[in-house]
Automatic annotation (TrEMBL), chains A, B:
Gene3D superfamilies for this protein: 1.10.8.590, 3.40.1280.10
UniProt cross-references to PANTHER family, sorted A to Z: TRNA/RRNA METHYLTRANSFERASE, TRNA_RRNA METHYLTRANSFERASE SPOU TYPE DOMAIN-CONTAINING PROTEIN
Family membership: Belongs to the class IV-like SAM-binding methyltransferase superfamily. RNA methyltransferase TrmH family.
Name of the featured protein: tRNA (cytidine/uridine-2'-O-)-methyltransferase TrmJ
Self-association and partners: Homodimer.
């Protein structure tokens, strides 16, 4: 196994199972196990909620009990919102998926148990697990939707496994302009401002420096320097045209 | 403002707005702004989907345009799944909320724009923002549900703001047993095993050490030592009873 396995114990709503499949697919997970879904399986409503993550739903395996669903795994996490007084290691999502990454890299099969929408996992089911995962929720409003809980684990798995690579970055499409181009832009700007007596007598040096700092902060690309230079020219020319 | 503001631009489904409110409340966010919801507002279906996060829904403010919804803010993130060719800084959720934490601590108002369920934000709306946030999704399945996107930002805000404190920890309810108690447990166990000739001649020292290592790995609490000692006694006594 190359990823953790998501195991839903007696999920009730087909829509939730579909949203779980979607959340898994968003972060590259695909192995889903269902322990006796309350309303049977397969079930209408799941596919539309999965909005495209059909491969996860169709690959889902059915089991009668949580014990059977984890029989082939080496390490199992149980998710719970509340303390159960069990003497187990307790992880947050990030630490749990860091642990999972290490174990999966070492060839272990890792699973995550999620309980029923209303009542969660039973204590006997939690006692099947090696460790507990809980979420850093606001104690005043701690009930996470099932698909939301699966999403957070999938998100943290993706970050642990791939470093959370973004689909695109903010790298400049064109490189920062060469200093000479920037300085000549400053010269041009200051000359045009001089021509309209923008600078009060003797204030020019300080005012020019301050304005250079504004534009330096932009770290302009070549294209941006050309764009701004064009805008200044348009303002200056336009003025000259207005007074013939 | 002490938290980032969640701004939904033309959300379509009341259920999604409700699930957004729930996701926000899970991680301590409460300020929600709605830009002309497609089917009007307030709308049935939102409350049940919020499953208790009514304070967020009832505090939601309505605006006609994204521009009006962010007018009072100092720094705005725009969320998008795809590159828009805009020359903006691009953040992942964790880095974005780290940035938000610093700005909010400095007294700035920070908002996060989320687009329509199907089409996301328009380029003109994104151009209102200071920076872009995108998610480390699987490129093959990158469409996040609206409430899921809000959940990830809320989760990362909570982690940036509070360090992601868990509702409970795995600290031992009773401290690790004193070494003397552990060693006397070993003596008792080995004596009982001797009594039933468990150890082959001359193998006892190595076998005893290996078994001690198993139990050392448990880092047993006092209660656990008592429990195991009782179990061993029961096995031994039972045996004696069986052969009178």
């Amino acid at each position: 196994m190359t990823h953790p396995i998501i195991i839903l114990v007696e999920p009730q709503l087909a829509e939730n199972i579909g949203m779980v499949a979607r959340a898994m697919a968003n972060f590259g997970l695909s192995e889903l196990r269902l322990v006796s879904p309350r309303n049977g399986w397969p079930k209408k409503g799941a596919h539309s909620a999965a909005s495209g993550a059909v491969h996860v739903l169709e690959g889902a395996k059915l089991y009668d009990t949580a014990r059977e669903a984890i029989a082939d795994l080496n390490y199992v996490f149980a998710t719970t919102a509340r303390e159960r007084g069990q003497m187990k290691r307790v992880f947050g999502p990030e630490a749990a998926m860091g642990e999972a990454k290490g174990r999966i890299s070492a060839g272990q099969g890792v699973g995550i148990l999620f309980g029923r929408e209303r009542t969660g996992l039973e204590n006997d089911e939690i006692s099947l697990a090696d460790a507990i995962v809980t979420f850093p929720v606001d104690p005043k409003f701690s009930s996470l939707n099932l698909a939301q809980a699966v999403l957070l684990m999938s998100y943290e798995w993706n970050r642990a496994a791939t470093g959370g690579v973004l689909p695109f970055t903010g790298e400049m499409l064109s490189p920062p302009a060469p200093r000479e181009m920037v300085v000549s832009f400053f010269d041009y700007l200051e000359a045009e401002l001089d021509a309209v007596n923008f600078y009060p007598a003797d204030k020019k040096p300080i005012m020019a420096r301050n304005m250079r700092d504004i534009f330096h902060r932009l770290a302009m690309s070549e294209q941006e320097v050309r764009t701004l230079r064009g805008a200044i020219r348009a303002l200056a020319e336009g003025r000259r045209l207005r007074k013939p």
